[in-house]
Fold this sequence. Notes:
The chain is mainly α. 68% of the residues lie in helices and 2% in strands. The chain has 14 helices and 2 strands. Strands 1-2 form a two-stranded antiparallel ribbon. A hairpin with a 2-residue loop joins strand 1 (171-173) and strand 2 (176-178). Helix 2 (31-40) crosses helix 14 (287-314), helix 3 (43-60) packs across helix 5 and helix 9 (194-207) packs antiparallel against helix 12 (236-259). The radius of gyration is 25 Å and the shape is elongated. The two termini are 36 Å apart. Residues 1-12 have low confidence and may be disordered.
Amino acid sequence: MSETRQGAAGATAHELELSYESGVEVEARSQWAYARMRFMRHRLAVVSLVVLILIGLVGAFAPWIAPYGFDELDLDNTTAPPTLEGWHLFGTDQLGRDYLSRVIFGIRTSLWVALVVALLSTAIGTTIGAVAGYFGGQVDNLLMRFTDLILTLPGLAVLLTAAVYFGQDDSVVFGVTIPQPLKIGLILAFLFWTSVARIVRGLFLSLREKEFVEAAKAAGATDTRIMFRHMLPNCVGPIIVNATLVVATAILVEAALSFIGFGIQPPNAALGKLISDGQGEGFNLWWLVTFPGLVIVIIALAINFVGDGLRDALDPTQRRVRG
């Protein structure tokens, strides 16, 4: 066995020597390169990422892609089923408004709210978790008890109360207009940061005992530099995965709030509000509920599959790639 290993090592050294002599350089791959390779082998995650990008582009360029305006009326084609005539591919509602266009505009609003929630909750949770895990002691106890307090709050009750208290229209604070979708995003972010805070706190508790942290302290680095320059990059994988899951959850919660009348309201477009407007028609106008619901399901599934692929790619101990 030892002779075989020596022979393999000798062959590898010989190949490297031949490569050097022939002028061929062996390119070293970073951990991100290996993560990208593992992600690309996760076929379902790659397909889901492509679907998400396409849906995101459709929502971002809604005014140019939608065949009609969001509230454009066509009284000659009211309650028309899906048809190629007039490009009413998703049919029309009771006022003759093209439902494909309304779904496209709803995608833009829902994704925008979800991204606001993901960015804010990730930033808040990462900061609180990093401070708690790095300093420990009383700081850790104080921040984690506050986190536990937020976790014990009944989410739906808090959301409904906040939606009523802050109103369902655009607000003006210190001369700055806050759109109603942004207010919904801020409320959701206040509740969604706890999971990433607990994850980052656990990682920092482990990382602060590592040798490179002791070396940074000995070199005179400040606590802020050690936390965000040396320790935080080692937590990027779990943070990214959690952020993708927050996006999916935010879309579903925002749709539920809009459905029960406490979320995004007209004139803003929202997928949940579209479902709420059509649910009273039952099977008579089935397309009013079916198409917005399918879009929500597709977005949520795609985000979860992308998160699953990122978890497999960013976890160096993951050996089996699911496709």
